[in-house]
């Protein structure tokens, strides 16, 4: 029988990725709605039960206009539950999040992505990302993203409008070709609220509001599946 013990430390357990929850929005009866805290907490539970050991919140955990003081408590609850369920919890700020000071709201233990391209290690994963700096962030960062790490699954994560046809305003703009050129196993995106797939191999697409993806690894190959 093959001996897998030597490679067990490279095992990359699934990553749960959610985006654009927009806590503070009503679930119905308003011009702009969101899935709400109950959906968010249930999704964390379902992701953990599906085998995910790592969580990425890919931007816009809170709405920039539709919120109350109680909404900050919901943000804390979301991340605190993530820390209970997952080995790694990563927050990549989106364009709505930067309207708030979330420093004291996000619990210690959450990895808060910097605003410059970086690689975050999560178990056997190399997660490549950069956070939004300002609303309508005009920076073109993808060309400066890190090279993929050899022999490990590489997942790109960005809150981006890409080329803009699916969003109202630019946010960390880039092209599909730039995403593909980096050679990552997949790209998961936030910002656009519809679930839109830009490329199948390697996968690139928006998670979508009220939706979640699981990124799974088979060696260095990355597969993205609906939760």
UniProtKB/TrEMBL annotation:
Highest taxon above the source species: Bacteria
Signal peptide interval: none
GO molecular function: hydrolase activity
Domain Calcineurin-like phosphoesterase: 14-194
Pfam families for the chain: Metallophos
Name of the protein in its database record: Metallophosphoesterase
